[in-house]
Amino acid sequence: MRKYIVKTTLMSLSTAVVLGMTGCGSSDDSTQTPNPSVTSAQVSGVAIDGILSGSTVCVNVNINNACDANEDSNTTNTQGEYKLYTEQTGPLFLYGGTDLGTGLAFTGTLKAPQGSKVITPLTSAVQALIESGLTQAQAETSVKTAMGIASDVNLTSFNPLKEITGTNAAKAKVVLEKQAQLQTMIHGAATTLAAVDTNTTVAETMDKVLNELSKNFKNATGEVDITAAKLETAIKEVAATIYADDAVSKKAVENVAQSAATNTHVTANQTATNIRNSEDNNVTNIFNEGIKKANSELEEEIKNIVVAVEDSNTTGSEDENTTTVEPDDNATASFSYELQSYYAEAIGKKGETLKSSLHTVVQNSAIFLTYAEDYQFLAQTDKDFSKPDEAYIVLFYLQESATADSRCGSSGSNCWNREHMWPKSLGVGYDDKINSYTDLHHLRPSDQGVNSSRGNKPYGEATTPYSKIDGFYVDSHFEVSDNLKGDVARAILYMTVRYEGDNGEPDLEIYANDFGDTHPAELCTMLAWNHIDPVTSADIKRNDIVQSYQGNRNPFVDNASWADDIWGSECNTTSVDSNSTDTNSTDTNTTSATTANLYFSEYIEGSSYNKAVEIYNASDTAISLSGYKVVMYMNGDPIANGAEIPLDAYILDAGSTFILANNQASTDILDHADQTSSELKHNGDDAIGLVDSNGNVLDVIGQIG
């Protein structure tokens, strides 16, 4: 069995900056001796990554991204300073040394166009575009546009660590943020490629990754989002080149690319966010501390991913090309190894222990997003993928397409806004600086009018049809159509697990049999809705995209049965089949085909209040009783003229029974009852009907008419 080992420490991800400074006047312990027989130009400066000490800087005459013996070079001293006497021309190239800001070895590479005063990840991207055929001006404009950097910043001379304390502090912070974000992505991808083969180094893969990622910047007309998917593609493209003759390593990279890209993307975004939210006088410290933390954590994550591949190969087959993960003997058997790694702490648990473990997982992996960023990200999480080349989104409730730029405040009254599925007034709060307010897992784009109609009404069963949308009902509650009930339920259940009152965040809970207006839903109704509307491939895709921005996942999208594993005992529900996923983006009620197999199997008509009826599920699948009701035809009237008793949101297993009894019946009856009602009071000439959510009479006890 081939061993895949992470053999190098992931390089410092911080920015390396080479300042062009003539006559530095500092110690010359690494000064190159000039050739007295020629008139040499002095190129001098200081390398900063924190401070890069012992780094080699050369004039890369042949542009081969290496410092050859015939190319003038020098190393930086303990202050990060260097002097280079040369008549040669070409881009600058830097490698090696130690980052004194983090204490870590700098095992990567950086480069910059000829004449640059600084060397950074951004100048590396500029040089990569020059090598692809752009002029320096075109290349620099492309990078600045793609990265959202002000047009008047000169990337080849602007030193953000120097400018952060001056009048250009705001621009410097943006440059630091973007440099760290790009470098993290490059380094994470390069580490992934080097991790599967002991003969491959991070340094030799970095430039190839940079060239692939820089293709996204070429001639950019607007800011470019390097998504986890784009990063994954870059990793695979480079692997196809460097491992063209090594099928095992190439396959290993392909198997880890998605997970490694996702983790790298999350780390890069978190690093950028920390820098963006830091105080100007503390940016440098946040920069170094965040990069060092990301460095060690990302290395460990990638190492774990590679080990998972090795383990799955070992247990699954002796064939080196086999990477199938053996299924676990639990509801997560269908998980990829990436998800098994992500949910490792929770797998195999039940009840409150499972809830607590999932809370730890989704809280620790979460990244804070600003409310302004949510608009940008919703355009991707809820994109109308039937129009891949156009900027359209799908409005959640209406399930209609709308232009992404028609959000309220920018396009008049026909607009969309951000719907908080867990209303702000019911616990999320109004502070847009906390995660619950900006959490993408419960934010959806919504038509302004529908959003207003919902207001802060709890989700639940309602009786009055909503005129704007077929299948919706509204009164004191807001009931969505069956094809959206699972989406709502899993968002609400996620919020109860994610927010437990830690770190100034709210403690969000819903409860069984609490149908009031102080919580966004009733627990058992949400469990029922989770059954009615299974997870779709569109739900999974949205979960993946949200994670690429926000870092965490909705566990109930990945494994819907966890909802029953946590709360099922409170609502008499059994596990959803987590391996059953509807591949369509829009679902229909999956219980409709089995409702004809619901019928009355027994009834009691005793003295006084001793009344009860038993309902039997003769189908081979569980059926939610949400939306069903027992109706009374008093005195044999042909029209239901008595009480209508809505049944609880109860999941009735195949071959099982449900008993509805009068609430004042004898103890012997009540001990077996699943639901009670004072309205169940039939006599000999009364008929009783079982009616589904569409008004169809499924079964009758007695004679109607």
Q: Any overview of this molecule?
A:
The protein has 705 residues and is α+β, with helices and mostly antiparallel strands. The strands form nine sheets. A four-stranded antiparallel beta sheet has the order 5-4-7-10. A four-stranded mixed beta sheet has the order 17-18-23-24, with no helix packed on it. The N and C termini lie far apart (77 Å).
Query: Average pLDDT value?
Result: 80
Sheet with the most strands, sense and barrel status:
4 strands, antiparallel
Q: How does the helix and strand content classify structurally?
A: alpha+beta
Strand content: 15-25%
Helix content: 25-40%
Count every beta strand, where a strand is a DSSP E run of 2 or more residues: 26
Uncertain segments are 1-31, 33-39, 312-331, 577-595
The DSSP helix count reads 19
Span between termini: 77 Å
Shape: elongated
Strands of the widest sheet, in order across it, are 5-4-7-10
List keywords for this structure.
elongated, 705 residues, alpha+beta, four-stranded antiparallel beta sheet, single chain, four-stranded mixed beta sheet
